[in-house]
Amino acid sequence: MGVVAPGFPEFVANPRRNAGFSPGNISSRSCRWIHSTRFVRSSVAPSIGARDPEASYETITAEVVESKSVGLLMLNRPQVLNALSEVCMREVVAALKGFDALPEVGAIVISGKGKAFAAGVDIKELKNKTMVDSFVNPVLDQWNQVSRIRKPLIAAVNGYALGGGCELAMMCDIILVGEKAVFGQPEIKIGTIPGMGGTQRLIREVGKSRAMEMILTGERFMDAKEACQRGLASRVIEGTNEELVAEAVAMAKNISGMSRPAVIMAKAAVNAAYESHLEEGVKREQAFFGATFGLEDRSEGMAAFFEKRKPNFQNK
Ligand code: CAA
User: Fold this and answer.
1) Are residues 234 and 281 in the same domain?
2) What is the pTM of this model?
3) Which residues does UniProt assign to the signal peptide (predicted)?
4) Of 143, 147, 157, 220, which is most buried, counting CB atoms within 10 Å of its CB?
5) Which residue did the predictor score with more confidence, 8 or 276?
6) pLDDT higher for 2 or 118?
């Protein structure tokens, strides 16, 4: 591989660091917990370890579907509109890291059971926190680890995506919405502000005026149609929740059929634009683009085009 960009995915840039990385050592029931240091790049928050994604959980369900090519994570606290508790946060992060480490999985879908995606961080837990807690033990920081997952994340949002729920959806790479999707940042109404990246991401998604309106009034929620018009979401899927999730899974399966390293580079390059200035982003894109010319999959993809056949990607 000729060019290695800043922030280049570790396993692409340095395959030797993944010695011992094999499907067997992850999916084996005898090895439930995976040492996170092997898979996770540096993080500010103390790291939550990757977990066998199909282990049993208290607040989510997680499974690999579509011949193991797609990770499907469902928030599962419908009685409290999937409010994001600390246990839920640990389980979501651990399961996502588990999916990220599974070689067969090419993309991940996140959705919610019941009538909400998630109505925010669990206010029952938040209400007793002090300012000191938020400095000494900044628990919400752990959610940042979602944005460090290297494989594409697709949020399938129906019903409420409020507060931390809206912020979790915005940490994903693609948002598909059902007709009843509602986005909002109502934290100001309970005397606080968004704490999982909402003030930073919403302005990039919907512009300053609309972001300010949502964040400062805590009302003026955004429906599915407006979310698509403004570019917060990609498209509305009509029908039931199950149909929405099925569409997201189909999209994830499609992405999973592409060259895995090319997908990871494309995601990192787009995020460079999202997270940095244009000049820096374009430089990173060029470095990633150059790096794809070290891939066997790039040769195969171009050869297949001229031979009028489907490419046979080997993820190399
Ligand atoms: N935390 C804990 N419990 C919640 C919750 C939350 N964020 N949102 C809803 N629930 C619970 C309710 O307390 C209720 O429980 P009970 O049945 O035991 O009373 C249950 O879920 C159903 O909720 P409602 O009866 O309120 O349902 P509704 O349809 O009448 O209203 C709603 C729906 C407008 C979403 C309303 O529940 C609501 O306003 N929820 C809170 C939204 C919010 O403020 N989110 C931001 C949280 S703070 C945050 O997220 C911080 C951050 O940015 C990091």
Assistant:
1) no
2) 0.85
3) none
4) 157
5) 276
6) 118
Q: Which two tokens stand for residue 144?
A: 């940042």
- Which residue in this structure is represented by tokens 């244009």? 278
- Quick one: tokens of 210? 């609309």
Q: Which atom of ligand 1 is nearest to the CA of 190?
A: 44
Where do runs of H (alpha helix) occur along 102-239? 123-126, 131-136, 164-171, 198-206, 208-217, 224-230
100 plus 229 within the same structural domain: yes
Same domain, 155 and 287: no
Q: Residue 288 sits in a domain of what CATH number?
A: 1.10.12
Residue nearest to atom 21 of ligand 1 (CA): 80
Q: Residue with the nearest Cα to atom 30 of ligand 1?
A: 81
Compute, in angstroms, the gap from residue 40 CA to the centroid of ligand 1.
33
The candidate with the shortest Cα–Cα distance to 285, out of 271, 306, 298, 299, is 271
Residue 160 lies inside a defined structural domain of this protein: yes
Question: In this structure, are 89 and 165 located in the same domain?
Answer: yes
264 plus 253 within the same structural domain: no
Domain hosting 286: range is: 260-307
Task: Write out pLDDT tens, residues 71-118.
Answer: 999 999 999 999 999 999 999 999 999 999 999 999 999 999 999 999
Which residues does 128 contact at the CB level (< 8 Å), separation at least 6?
A: none
Task: Look at the chain and report how many structural domains it folds into.
Answer: 2
Say how many Å lie between the CA of residue 78 and the centre of ligand 1: 11
Determine the pLDDT at residue 302: 85
Give residue 123 CA to ligand 1 midpoint distance, Å. 7
Token pair belonging to 31: 């090895």
What residues are in contact with ligand 1 under a 6 Å CB criterion?
Answer: 80-81, 83, 119-124, 140, 160, 162-164, 167, 186-187, 190, 194-196, 198
16-38 residue pLDDT tens = 333 332 333 333 333 333 333 33
Cα–Cα distance, 66 to 216 (Å, whole number) = 42
* Per-residue pLDDT reduced to its tens digit, 253-311: 999 999 999 999 999 999 998 888 877 777 777 888 878 888 999 899 989 988 999 99
